[in-house]
Amino acid sequence: QKAAEKYKIDSALIKAVIKAESNFNHQAVSPKGARGLMQLMPATASYLQVQDSFHPEKNIDGGVRYLRYLLSRFNGNLSLALAAYNAGEKAVMKYKGVPPYRETKDYVQRVQGYLTVFR
Description:
Elements: H1 2-7, H2 11-22, H3 42-47, H4 56-73, H5 78-87, H6 89-95, H7 102-118
Helix pairs in contact: 2-7, 4-5, 5-6, 5-7
């Protein structure tokens, strides 16, 4: 809720991303090395100045700040922002839309489904 208010993002969207990324496990580590609730990659966490990706509040603050940036970058288009959160901005720019990666397409649909549940 704190991050939702700070970055003006629907708290249901934050919960949906956390559910899809880590299933609310603050100690989650992906096979690719993403960490914490919002699964920040070490380079992204460093860029966002998140010192401890396993600290729930710091992870959420960094992840939501990044999500806010992506939403602004893609003019409020949630599908593109979520695709960029999953596959990276460059992939979204390259394909001029949601990249044709099965994982990314599934991720965007999964988060949007959770968003409906959490609203």
